Amino acid sequence: MNDDGFDYDLVVVGGGPAGSTVATLVAMQGHRVLLLEKETFPRYQIGESLLPSTIHGICRLIGVADELADAGFPVKRGGTFRWGRNPEPWTFAFAISPKFASDGATAYQVERMKFDQILLDNARRKGVTVRERCGVVDVLEEDGRVCGVRFDDEDGVRQELRSRYVVDASGHRSRIHNRVGGERHYPEFFRNLALFGYFEGGKRLPEPNSGNILAAAFSGGWFWYIPLSDNLTSVGAVLRPEALDRVREGDRETVLRQLISECPLIAEYLAEATRVTSGPYGEVRIRKDYSYIRDTFSRPGMLLVGDAACFIDPVFSSGVHLATFSALLAARSINSVLAGDLDEATVLAEFEARYRREYGLFHDFLVAFYDMQQDEDSYFWTAKRVSDDRVASDVQAFVQLVGGAGSDERAFVDADSYLRERKAAFRELADVVQGPVAEAGEDRNLLGASMLKEVLKEGVRVQTQAALGGNVDEQRPIRGGGLVPSADGMRWRRSESVAPAPGPAPRVPGA
Fold first, then answer.
1. InterPro entries annotated for this entry (predicted)?
2. Which of residues 117 and 504 earns the better pLDDT score?
3. Band (204; pLDDT cuts 50, 70, 90)
4. Nearest CA to 282 among 72, 44, 73?
5. CB neighbours of 268 closer than 8 A, spacing ≥ 6?
6. 3-class SS at 295?
7. Which whole-number Å values give the CA distances from 44 to 54, 100, 285, in the listed order?
8. How many Å apart are CA 210 and CA 212, to the nearest integer?
9. What is the pTM of this model?
10. Which residue of 41, 69, 132, 356 is most buried, as measured by CB atoms within 10 A?
11. How does DSSP classify residue 510?
12. Rg of the chain over CA atoms, in angstroms?
């Protein structure tokens, strides 16, 4: 233990993208950081499809962009969808900013075992002490503040360590996420499950879109089809929870095959493919209740990042983005306090506001995107319709959560007003998605829709900061009295601007 009574400035629980990122960004500022991971890397993890902001923003900030470029991951230039009324697939291409070269408008499809290993090894190189096979079982508290962790070490011996901060990045199965207080809530609208496996020999989209994620709607829900290499493909069906009864009636392999046969496009792409039956990709897996959000993401001495805090439906590949973006927000907050720049209450409020806002933007876009599929005979798609008042209570419930229902300042928004405000944006998105397709794979200007512009805005800012080494756009807070990033993106600073940035008022604590 050091003279200040703490073993470390920061203990990070979990070595996935969120944990590796926050640990690296804090260590890069010269602070003492320990990362505890319960498994031994490389280990299997779902979530293979990434967004440009992670690759060209966060990964450039932490110094692994070149290593990822050399790793041979398939290049993803956007997404291809069989969605809405269009009988032919159409494509959305990333188009982020004229400030970037063309490679800034791409991402990767990654094998998470390889991607996560790269990030964890980079954390070690940047000065993070990494200990694998160490499972955290609880946090230490003192005078109402989290001040360390209790964990079982590599030999199974129970130990305690004191730290100024603890970040929980241990995912949806976190054992300590509830120590921030409040509850985890599962929005009814996104109450889905996923049944998925891995295949070899599947077909690829025509160039230049061979590395795209393919999302194909069918009567029972929708499929993802993610090329992980020239030969390996991740394939999953997203269904309502009631479909779990169907899985119970037969083995997972049989049910997955039946679902594939019900979606002609995916069946065509897998016509000559075989399912992987051994190794880490050999299991047909189920994930259920995977969309959720907590009442609060932080408390004195502790922050939640990534899936420990929240997760939203995977149709737009937002999982790793929200994980690494929240890690950046957490690192800025911790670095600012450790440097003596700002007080803890101020930075935690900024962390919470920005994280909750980003989640909310993805939620709004995905609600609208689901409404594009018009299948009146499908239970799945009927349950996803949002264009009438039947879902007002669900919208109200979500708005209250994103508005800070667990905080002292609750930004409750009337559901009817919310729907009226978003009606024009919903219609604008529908016009882009539902227009006729001249030929399969035709590009859509999805970025022209205001809802997607909002979703990508923060990612573009991070990419700009990483690529150019500073802020080139005007930095204004997202709320009255809020903070803005420092020039290098590593800390917060008070804004000289009084007015918050224009755009939809974020439904966040203090808004």
1. FAD/NAD-bd_sf, Flavin-dep_Halogenase_NPB, Flavin_halogenase
2. 117
3. very high
4. 44
5. 203
6. coil
7. 20, 33, 12
8. 6
9. 0.88
10. 356
11. T
12. 22
Return the number of other C-beta atoms located less than 10 Å from residue 230's C-beta. Answer: 12
Residue 335's contacts (CB-CB under 8 Å, 6 or more residues apart) are 25, 26, 29, 31, 490, 491
What is the SS3 assignment for 231?
coil
Give residue limits of the domains in the chain.
1-191+289-475, 192-288
Task: State residue 136 phi and psi, 5-degree precision.
Answer: -75, 130
Nearest by Cα to 52 from 122, 121, 15, 100? 100
Helix, strand, or coil (residue 327): helix
Q: Which amino acid is at 108?
A: Y
Distance CA 139, CA 160 (A): 9
Largest CA-CA distance found in the chain, in angstroms, rounded: 70
CA atoms within 13 Å, Cβ hemisphere of 226: 26
Per-residue tokens: 214: 């393919």
In CATH, the number for domain 1-191+289-475 is 3.50.50.60
d(CA 360, CA 357): 5
3-state secondary structure 370-406: HCCCCCCCCHHHHHCCCCCHHHHHHHHHHHHHHCCCC
pLDDT at residue 51 tops 80: yes
pLDDT at 499 over 60: no
Q: How many C-beta neighbours within 10 Å does residue 422 have?
A: 18
Q: Which residues of 475-486 are buried (b: 16+ CB within 10 A; e: fewer)?
A: bebbbeebbbbb
Q: Which residue has the tokens 């094998």?
A: 111
Closest C-alpha to 304, from 243, 355, 253, 345? 355
What fold does the segment set 192-288 form as a domain? Answer: D-Amino Acid Oxidase; Chain A, domain 2 (3.30.9)
Contacts of 377 (CB under 8 A, 6+ apart): 219
